[in-house]
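Reply to dn_fold:

You asked what the input looked like. This is it:
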Amino acid sequence: MPARGRSETVSQRAAWIFLAPFLLIVLVFVLYPLVQSTVLAFQQTYGPGTKTFIGTDNFTNMMTDPVFWTAVKNTVVYALGSLFIQLPLALLLAMALNSPKLRGRGVYRLIFFSPQLMGLVFVSILAALMFEKRAGLINQSLHLFTGGEWSLDFPWLESHVMATLILISLWMYVGFNMIYFLAALQSVDDTLLEASEIDGAGPIARFRHVIVPAIRPVASFVVMLSMIGSLQLFELPFVLLDGSGGPGNQGLTVVMYLYQSGFEVGDLGYASAIGWVLAVMLIGLALLQLWIVRRDEA
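and this is what came back:
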């Protein structure tokens, strides 16, 4: 064999040897679970050892399952709260902290971003204590600031579970999204802002016609990241509500219902079907976002 051919063969073998660990991990932890979950979605299981093929019954039953639709509704409400409350507030904070006139901007950035340094489980435990009746910090503070008008027995975790989840997530993630918006704002061309100001454009016009087009790619990414994270919500309500969906399943999410179906009820087939429906929702959301971005760029 010529020296050149032998060298290419050795290089190819070396490449496959270096790729082997990665391919093995993908095979064991990605491809095999995907195939297995697809098979399980068409089966009914009674624990890990008993399986019965039932065709599409899992998906049919899901369409008429009121608990599943409650979980979907709660997840959508949470996602809309993230989209219309959390992200606009993050953008406003980013614009405020991007002002060169503001002193101590680095300190404020650290303060708003610092909740990301804590884990979700710790935040959930802390929130459960803060939103307690009577002894909770939230009710105590509101009672004090309103001169006793706010009831110490306000039922945050009994009657306002979703509002509580949105408030906790607001505190947890607004600083995280603010960093993305801040990075995008710092890349806006100052000459365009100065030119628009010279042309008589006010703050709203400059924001609409200069800032928004400049930060649109980052904003699209942040929206997608927020929506995917919202649809996958699990740890926060699971720990906050002690593993349940709360009173009347007010805090039940799709991923929580998947967990309950698979690991509490023991029907891994139904849980796999829920997982695939969630995957289709995420893929559809990603395709919609991609279509919107390409339409704006055209």
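The first strand starts at residue 43 and ends at 45.
Hope that clears it up.
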